[in-house]
Amino acid sequence: GLYVGSDAIPKPSDGVLFEVAANHYMKTHTIHKKIIRCETSRLQILIKRWGNLPVSKIDKSSIITLRDELLKMGRSGETINHYFNTISKLFQMLNDEWDLEIPNPIRGIKRMPSSKGRSKRVNLELESLLLYGCDQLSLPLLCSIIQFALQTGMRRGELMGLTWADIDLSN
């Protein structure tokens, strides 16, 4: 493909391949985000799908086909919206930074409705299985993290982002 190993910004006449644009976006934009792992995996999936297509060939019907296939695979509206946002940001980069005048294929496509959310609780049986597993694998720190997560209801990202300044021991 064109420019696959290069960091140079291609000229509009080059017929920029999706893979080139997506790889550049990962190196220059995704890397600065908290959602780096999720966005990278979405982009990898899209590269498998559209990698050697010129970005100009990715249009509204490509997006609608992607949406329908993700729905068929049982992906949530929320997940599909994440794909839409990633694609939209990538095309924004192509227009703003690469000066390619390519219509954003997401424009005019309705976002999926959010799911109602869910409340999952770990019961005592599952809790003891988790803690037993930590024990068997000699992971006492993970054991503490799991207990802390269960007590506070915090998510992984919230736990990993904690600093001592966030802890109010007296309360």
What do you see in this structure?
The protein is an all-alpha fold and 171 residues long. The longest helix has 20 residues. It is elongated and about 55 Å long.
Task: Please name the defining characteristics of this protein.
single chain; 171 residues; mainly alpha; 7 helices; 53% helix; elongated
Mean pLDDT: 86
N- to C-terminal distance? 59 Å
Number of helices: 7
Structural class: mainly alpha
Number of strands: 0
State the order of secondary-structure elements, H for helix, E for strand: HHHHHHH
Counting copies of identical and different chains, the oligomeric state is: single chain
| Gyration radius, in Å | 21 Å
Strand proportion, as a percent range, falls in: under 5%
User: Main sheet, how many strands, which sense, barrel?
Assistant: none
Report the principal-axis shape: elongated
Helix content: 40-55%
Low-confidence segments, given as residue ranges, are 1-5
